[in-house]
Amino acid sequence: MGVLNVDRIATGYLNKLIINDLTVSIPENKITTIIGPNGCGKSTLLKAISRVLKTKSGAVYLDGRAIHQLETKEVAKRMAILPQTASAPEGLTVFELVSYGRFPHQKGFGSLKKEDYKFIYWALDVTGLNEFKDRPIEALSGGQRQRVWIAMALAQGTEILILDEPTTYLDLAHQLDILLLLQRLKEEEGRTIVMVLHDLNHASRFSDYMIAMKDGTLMIEGTPDEVMTCPNLQNVFNIDASMATCPFSNNPICLSYQLFQKNR
Amino acid sequence: MSTRAEVSAEIEALTETNKQSRPIMAIIILFGGIFALLVSIAMSISFGAADIELATVWTAVFHFNPDLTPHQIIREIRMPRVLGAAMVGSCFAVAGALMQGMTRNPLADSGLLGLNAGAAFMLALCFAFFPGLPIMYLIMYSFLGAGLGAAIVYGIGSLSRGGLTPMRLVLAGAAVSALLGALSEGIALYFRIGQDLAFWYAGGVSGTKWINLQVMAPWIIIAMIGAIIISKSITLLSLGDEVAIGLGQKTKTIKVFGMLIVLVLAGSAVSVVGAVGFVGLIVPHLTRLIIGHDYRWIIPCSIVIGALLVVLADLAARMINPPYETPIGALIALIGVPFFLYLARRGGREL
Predict the structure, then answer these.
(1) In this prediction, what percent of chain B has a pLDDT beyond 90?
(2) Which residues of A touch B245 (CB under 8 A)?
(3) Is A126 part of any domain?
(4) Residues of chain B predicted below pLDDT 70
(5) φ and ψ at A211, to 5 degrees?
């Protein structure tokens, strides 16, 4: 059993069920990545795990307790979320946004304490944003903006981080920057990280555990070695993949791929 | 990469030297605004059809003598009027700020989104069918009307494919306001209550009496305190629902409370001054420009600046063409419309 357990959940939007009867377990102190084609319910699963979406049946358990019954502010002390489409109000500075990450730890009307400043400056530092801290967010590049949101989630100081496509909009170097940072957070501080990635090779290289989804159901879960195989990629993405080994992680990567024309 | 010890020493140093400039600006605006407000209130009381010196104003307020006519004028006509103006300004401004924060819609304003027209329509119905209804009930109906206006606008707005965009809501608001306005005028003509409604429509605080203020005050004070209490949550909501939930906010509860507060504020303001728009648009944007995005400061500053704007507008309304009064609504629209066009030109970007 992991730190987060998804037990037979059904969930979706309005009357449309996206996920039906899905059970999965997120291991503690590991990086778990959810992969799958567009519209397969990856983000929906992430939203259910992070209590943004209510479940129609079944439940998500955080340390054995149903997450929707826990005080939401208490959950926020343990779990931070980076949504896929976060956009900041105009005029907000980097420092201000990152400082909002401290909200769950503040009491009453809330002014920043010394402890809060430490977390904020640490988050700005590890995301390389210190020099931009007084700039308005709309004046930053897409990649920098993404880092600001990650910094806010980090300032929250939680053991669990949930990120929906944290590397989207970033160039190659910045993508790696973020993933290395997440890896460091896991290794040095034992954080649990759950994310959605589109890049299979990044997912394979940095994950301890992978969850492959298709049409709202779980196709396969396991280590990158178990998940990243030709038959699995065919099942999940309908691609004919040519596999190789990542020289950095020794995990399988997809060198290139073909579509299965006839099966489409 | 620097070592951990170096990093933490650096962080320590930054923590020590961090300066927060925006709260200082907010405090300046707050106290400067209060001072300016007191001065304008004093000026507004002393200026009018009968000229009264400031010294007389002082004695009328603090050493009232019922035998003196100027004292009577000040006490019974000018004071309730100017206090009414201040109250109404604060109400519209805070309602606008809350709506903008909760909906992330920069064009949110009780006038633009049909709340004011809804309240005014309900009041017209009251005048027509229940003449002489006590003010207490009038205000209740005004709240209801504001809710009705908002419900229709949001209903129409969300019917359209592609969901609620700021621009769509404003269009729906304009259409619904026009319809409700036309209906109110029809009622006024049919029931021959046009005289009662006409000036009040264009917006004016001239008829404000102590009793109106007394009935409204508790509602408004409670709503304002509520607004300040949820102000921090509004800041987080303005980052988007998902982020707010992630930070431990009960988004639905906050939105319900926020909406109730908005209805009370807009409803009571309309019951005094009529369907004056744009105050809720101008004031929060101005304060945001100066003091930043923290609603813990935006709300209190909006209270002060909103009051100041309407007190000044009322003063100007009496000075432009004395002894006649120019409708306040028209004066505020003079500033409000260009401001709206400026915001709309930027494409109604999300807040």
Answers:
(1) 28
(2) 50-52, 72, 81
(3) yes
(4) 1-22, 49, 161-164, 194-204, 346-351
(5) -125, 120
- Write the pLDDT tens digit of every residue in A62-76: 988 999 899 999 999
* Overall pTM > 0.80: yes
Extract the runs of DSSP E, i.e. beta strands, from A165-250.
192-196, 209-214, 217-222, 239-245
Count up the domains in chain A and report the number.
Answer: 1
Domain B37-43+78-343 CATH superfamily: ABC transporter involved in vitamin B12 uptake, BtuC (1.10.3470.10)
**Type of residue at B91:** C
Instruction: Evaluate whether A28 touches A44 at the Cβ level (below 8 Å).
Output: no
Q: Residue B4 has which token pair? A: 């951990």
Please provide residue A61's backbone torsions phi and psi, each rounded to the nearest 5 degrees. Answer: -110, 130
Chain segment A122-153, per-residue pLDDT in tens: 999 988 898 998 898 888 888 888 889 999 99
pLDDT digits (tens, 9 = 90+) for B57-74: 788 888 888 888 888 888
**Considering the domain boundaries, does residue A264 fall inside one?**
no
With an 8 Å Cβ cutoff, the interface of chain B facing chain A consists of 7, 10-12, 14-15, 18, 104, 106, 232, 235-236, 238-243, 245-250, 288-289, 292-294, 296, 349-351
In this structure, what token pair is assigned to residue B187? 């009622």
Cα B38 from Cα B41, distance rounded (Å): 5
Which residue type occupies A237? F
pLDDT tens, position by position, B262-279:
999 998 888 888 878 889
Question: For residue A97, what are the domain limits?
Answer: 2-259
Q: d(Cα A18, Cα A12) in Å, to the nearest integer?
A: 5
Domain ranges of chain B: 37-43+78-343
User: How many Cα atoms occupy the beta-carbon half-sphere of A199 within 13 Å?
Assistant: 16
ipTM confidence score: 0.89
What span, in angstroms and rounded, lies between the C-alpha atoms of B90 and B34?
Answer: 12
Cα–Cα distance measured from residue B70 to residue B60, given in angstroms and rounded to the nearest whole number: 8
Rounded Cα distance, B289 and B25, in Å: 11
Q: Is residue A234 part of a domain?
A: yes
What is the least distance, in Å, from the CA of A166 to any CA of chain B? Answer: 14
